Amino acid sequence: MDFGTLFVYGTLAVVVVGSAIGMLISRNAVYAALFLVLNFMAVGLLYLILGAPFIALVQVTVYAGSIMVLFMFVIMLLGAETLPFTEPVRGQRAIGVLLAVAFLAEVALFIQLRSTPLGNIPPISAEYSAPAQIGMLLFDRYLLAFELTAVILLAATVGAIMLTKQDKPVHEAAKNPRLEERKE
Fold first, then answer.
1. Is 40 exposed, middle or buried (0-12, 13-18, 19+ CB in 10 A)?
2. What are all long-range contacts of 6-14, with beta carbons under 8 Å and residues at least 24 apart?
3. Is 144 inside a domain boundary?
């Protein structure tokens, strides 16, 4: 691996990790969502550099595009721009640290026990990740799962709108215009 490639991978890795940390420590929900968009874009670039253009396109359009628009819509609709400073669940930080240590232990164990060196992995054919083949699999073999996912996302969107809908007080005259006529 030459220096230029290593520099690009290193820079993208720093952006991915930095934006993830920025998202986690940000107290403003809008800034956290924007850090998440940056993270999705950097991960999409990593996919593109690794030779998976379809996954990179899906990463950018679905996650950084559609899902983040939905997140921003819900954040603005709820008015939850600033997160509270108190912990909603007692001991949440301790559980988070414990889970992070367990995850790092699993990563270390995986690296130590990995039996197949990277040089022995057989090459993948060029048409394996072709958009046409993925589309045929998605709409042929996995059509039900694709449609169920669409229905679940639609239900979540409608549910978020219904939960945040506030009944606005309606003036008596606006409810019944004949009331104004009777008072006169």
1. buried
2. 8/49, 9/46, 9/49, 12/42, 12/45, 12/46, 12/49
3. yes
Q: With respect to residue 109, please indicate whether it lies within any of the assigned structural domains.
A: no
The token pair that represents 117 in the structure block: 């060196």
Q: Report yes or no on whether pTM surpasses 0.85.
A: no
User: Residue 98's Cα: distance from chain center in Å?
Assistant: 24
Q: What is the pLDDT of residues 36-53, one digit of tens each?
A: 889 999 999 999 888 888
pLDDT one-digit tens code per residue, 141-181: 888 888 898 898 888 878 777 776 766 665 555 555 555 55
CB atoms inside a 10 Å sphere around CB 44 = 22
Residue 76 domain flag = yes
Whole-angstrom distance, CA of residue 60 vs CA of residue 47 = 10
Helices 68-78 and 143-164 cross at an angle (nearest 10°) of: 20
Angle, CA of 152, 156 and 162, to the nearest 5°: 140
- For residue 134, give both structure tokens: 């993925």
